[in-house]
Amino acid sequence: MSQATIPAPRSGYNRSKSGGSKFELAAWLYMRLSGILLVVLIFGHLYVNMIAGEGVQQIDFGFVAGKWASPFWQIWDLLMLWLAMLHGTNGMRTIISDYAEKPATRMWWQIILYASSLTIIVLGTLVIYTFEPCPAGADPSVLASFCTAD
């Protein structure tokens, strides 16, 4: 039976021997930093939507339209969407790598994951930036109550 040697404390450690990569280190670091930022964004979102003002009763089409009229809230919600989707995608990528044993299975699950994440990010971004509660020339009977018919 051979004995493993333990390196002396504070001796150099070569990560390349252990099979790690710079991408995995960046992904690990991203999870920690995005998690911290997401906590701030989500609790800010919950405070504004659920506690401030009239509470949950205030949330309707007009409330969202009023929020998204401000570039501040558009960027806030966009950051929350992007960070949450990329954070979740990175976590699922790790789970797929851990549990999908066959390379072909792993590849297909990752393709599905990346395609669905990209679709949600693109559609969510389009919704945030192209949302128009009072489109010009629309039938007044279908407009929200706060829209003025021109």
From TrEMBL:
Membrane-crossing segments per the record: 25-48, 68-86, 107-131
Keyword annotations of the record: Heme, Iron, Membrane, Metal-binding, Transmembrane, Transmembrane helix
Signal peptide feature range: none
CDD domains, alphabetized: SQR_TypeA_SdhD_like
Entry's Gene Ontology molecular function annotations: metal ion binding
Record-level GO cellular component terms: membrane
Domain of life assignment: Bacteria
Predominant place of localization: membrane
Cell location: Membrane
Protein name: Succinate dehydrogenase
Source organism per UniProt: Sediminivirga luteola
Lineage: Bacteria, Bacillati, Actinomycetota, Actinomycetes, Micrococcales
